Amino acid sequence: MDLNKIMNDLEKKHPGEMEYLQAVREVLESLEDVVNENPQFESAGIIDRLVEPDRVLMFKVPWAEDNGKVNVNLGYRVQFNNAIGPYKGGLRFHPSVNLSILKFLGFEQIFKNALTTLPMGGGKGGSDFNPKGKSDAEIMRFCQSFMLELWRLVGPDTDVPAGDIGVGGKEIGYMYGMYKKLAREHTGVLTGKGTDWGGSLIRPEATGFGTVYFAQEMLATKGDSFEGKTVAVSGFGNVAWGAITKVNDLGGKVVTISGPDGYIHDPEGITGDKVEYLLELRASNQDIVSPYAEEFPEATFHADKRPWEVKVDVALPCATQNELDGDDAQNLVNNGCMCVAEGANMPSTPEAVHTMQSNGILFGPGKAVNAGGVATSGLEMTQNAMKLAWTREEVDAKLHHIMKSIHEACVTHGKKADGSIDYVKGANVAGFLKVANAMLDLGLV
Ligand code: NDP
Ligand code: 2IT
After folding, report:
1. What CATH number should be reported for the domain holding residue 268?
2. pLDDT confidence bin for 284, thresholds 50/70/90
3. Cβ atoms < 10 Å from Cβ of 41
4. 40 and 60 share a domain?
5. Choice among 103, 124, 193, 246 that is catalytic
6. Counting atoms of ligand 2 from 1, which one is nearest the CA of 88?
7. Of 351, 369, 387, the domain-final residue
8. Ligand 2: does its nearest atom lie under 6 Å from the Cβ of 89?
9. Is 171 a member of any domain?
10. Measured in whole angstroms, how far is the alpha carbon of residue 409 from the centre of its chain?
């Protein structure tokens, strides 16, 4: 495999798609050995076929503000690869959304979904709509208009979207309502649904819980655990909330959260009422974490800074892509951090990953670490297909089991001669082999 040629060709074809090109390079770098050892992949053009999405739908989403003013946003669905199951992946509503970001997320999703052990292909979608500061009625009208286009593309056995940044239970509800009306059917076309109308218990917590279950396995390779560990979390959204809850359960202490405005340092730990307060902060529909420090005076707010300067044992980036750079990684190394597990998708820059890995930090990449969210979406699809609902305990046990098996797959494919584990390589190779072998079996389609 000629990595430089593939990347040069892709850069020419998709100039400026920075996040997409970053994600493809990171995966292909890990795959060089396995592709060179398996000439059947080369002759079947597996890499060339994998790096381009099957199709991209782009559409306009007109919607009216409460005062009648009309706005137009862009909507997208990137159907990347369905070799092992229906396209599956979240919808992101954030003003930064563009084709490059959705292609990076869709590409990563192929391998993540393959790692879950469940039959799901990869896709992603969303809009540059900003839900911040919008009324419920405005969010509803936007979601309805978005689904008016999307519904023709999706279906419970075709493509099953879910939430991501800016899309939680409320938005899924409005989109599902519109789908149900248009398709005249009540099926599992979206996951992350409310539990009264087909959703799975544990799905809201799943990404954060899964992140911590995975980090727990990583620590166990060093004979260690979360008990007594100090933990830095970034973000204050769905994933951060689930991760904080589970770290607390396991005896660790979370001392940071962050938002686009800066970070909060709470040396006493974010526990009890403070975790509930995070939900209030999110529901307030603002874009800031600073009010936390007014509510809890023992905490301090650090404007325009990132939490990676705080001395911690474990770091869980749970906000967004490229939120932890080379300098941040060096801070973590200097402060003796032993484990970084990515709850978000691609939060670490390539330079940061290099710095962490070369300094012996246990580093778990997002596609393995945060796969518990989509895995529980897969469990929601199973429950919908069977038309029954599992208990919290059943879903949590299945999630825990899946996270352990993803960790095992990373060890199998990422163990180095010196006994250390390259989780980046392990995750990429394990996910790739499943999809590539399926593509070979299915012929050139
Ligand atoms: P939420 O919308 O619930 O939270 C996102 C968090 O990140 C918020 O705190 C948000 O702050 C912050 N954030 C978003 N964009 C930026 C930015 N440009 N700069 C700084 N902070 C930012 O989303 P989730 O918790 O669901 O998602 C967080 C991460 O986890 C994302 O990378 C997502 O792709 C990933 N993920 C999510 C899964 C899920 O099931 N939800 C599954 C697997 C991964 P604010 O809203 O104030 O901008
Ligand atoms: O990035 C992700 O894995 C998600 N946002 C969850 C996708 C899903 O289909 O549950």
Report:
1. 3.40.50.720
2. confident
3. 22
4. no
5. 124
6. 9
7. 369
8. yes
9. yes
10. 19
Tell me the β-bridge partners of 93.
Answer: 127
pLDDT of residue 323: 98
Does 124 qualify as catalytic in the annotation? yes
Residue reference for tokens 């596609």: 367
Q: Say if residues 122 and 139 touch (Cβ distance below 8 Å).
A: no
pLDDT band at 285 (very low <50, low <70, confident <90, very high): confident
Q: Does some domain include residue 280?
A: yes
Q: Is the CB of 374 under 6 A from ligand 2?
A: yes
Better-scored residue on pLDDT, 284 or 54: 54
211 and 163 housed in the same domain: no
Long-range interactions of 283-288: CB distance < 8 A, separation 24+: 285/131, 285/132, 285/133, 285/134, 286/132, 286/133, 287/132, 287/259, 287/260, 287/261, 288/259, 288/260, 288/261
Q: Is 108 in the pocket of ligand 2 (CB under 6 A)?
A: no
Q: How far is the CA of 317 from the centre of ligand 1 (A)?
A: 10
Same domain, 65 and 47: no
| CA 61 to ligand 1 center in whole angstroms | 22
CA 39–ligand 2 middle distance (angstroms): 32
Same domain membership, residue 173 and residue 37: no
**Could you tell me whether strands 55-64 and 70-81 are parallel, antiparallel, or unpaired per DSSP bridges?**
antiparallel
Mean pLDDT of 61-73: 98
Residue 381 lies in a domain: no
> Among 133, 159, 187, where does a domain finish?
187
Number of domains present in the structure of the chain: 3
Atom of ligand 2 nearest to the CA of 376: 10
Most informative mutation of 159, 377, 402 for ligand 2 (most atoms within 8 A of CB) = 377
Q: Say if residues 371 and 212 touch (Cβ distance below 8 Å).
A: no
pLDDT averaged over every residue in the chain: 97
End-to-end CA distance of the chain: 22
Decide: 162 in ligand 2 pocket, CB within 6 A. yes
What's the CA-to-centroid distance between 166 and ligand 1, angstroms?
7
Q: Are residues 179 and 242 in the same domain?
A: no
For the entire predicted model, the pTM comes to 0.97
Residue 134's domain comprises 53-187
Q: Which ligand is nearest to the CA of 118?
A: 2
Supply the pLDDT for residue 287: 79
Q: Which amino acid is at 76?
A: Y
Q: Is 165 in the pocket of ligand 1 (CB under 6 A)?
A: yes
CA of 380 relative to ligand 2 center, distance in Å: 12
* 349 plus 212 within the same structural domain: yes
168 and 93 housed in the same domain? yes
31 & 82 share domain: no
Position 193 in a domain: no
